Amino acid sequence: MLFYETVNARSINKASALLDMPKSTISRRLRMLEQQFNSTLLKRGARSLSLTETGRALYQRCLSIVAELEKANLQTAAIQEEMSGVLRISMPSFFVGWVAEAIADFARQYPALRLEIEALNRHVDVSEEPFDLAIHFGKPAETFHPTRLLAELPRNFYATPGYLKKHGTPTRYSELARHDMIAHQFQMRDKVFPWFTKPDGDATPLPPRAVVNNAVLVRDLILRDLGIGLMPDIMCLEDVADGRLVRVALDWQSPPLAASATYLARRYAPAKTRAFLDHLSAFLRKRAYC
Length: 290
Hints:
Layout: H1 2-9, H2 12-19, H3 23-37, E1 42-44, E2 49-51, H4 53-72, H5 79-82, E3 85-91, H6 93-109, E4 113-119, E5 133-137, E6 147-153, E7 155-159, H7 161-167, E8 181-184, H8 185-189, E9 210-212, H9 215-223, E10 228-232, H10 233-241, E11 246-248, E12 257-263, H11 271-288
Parallel strand pairs: 3-4, 3-5, 8-9, 8-10
Antiparallel strand pairs: 1-2, 5-12, 6-12, 7-10, 7-11
Helix pairs in contact: 1-2, 6-11
């Protein structure tokens, strides 16, 4: 477990601070472990550690051990005692509005637990920043920390009744080439859907009307009759119910948007971290398919 936590910290200095253990002790025990395996486990760089092939295999085994500890529920304090203190969470700013109800409900359930939530539109590494967990969307970045899939959110194309009245309602995916498209930067980067070519057969891809890096801005531009855009259904529930947006049904189904959480790994995930992730996952899965 000392090896496991040192890998998660990515440096002996950080592991020393995290574990309140002298650096010399950590280094000595890691050398003993390497002697036991008769193999180098860690490559010690100037600023950080990286795993050798043997080290990676051992780390995967450590993950199994941690999972077994979680299943065995080997906490050192009662669960209510652990549902106190502070839980520091990072999430994208657009996501806050989707889950504010879930966050408020969780806070009411555990009044002794203080939540510190930051809305950040960038990738957050929980080993480098003071967060217990970070929520991300799309393909997760490679990390040594545990990553849990919270939900896969269905996505569809949406437009306003005014835009569709003026430009017509497409029924086939290929017909989107004749429309103004509002795209998210990550949709372009990850090639979420095949881009459109000109209707006259020219293979040159048609640029979208607008490309932005904020999901809320995608929605706002669509609501202002500027075009059609691909958005998670959970983001459009109220707009559809109030008649502001219309789901454009096509002969093509978008892959879902993955919502995942990376959390700071210690010997086992604290009860408050697991409880929050369980609560949020259940809320998202329920809302995604309602």
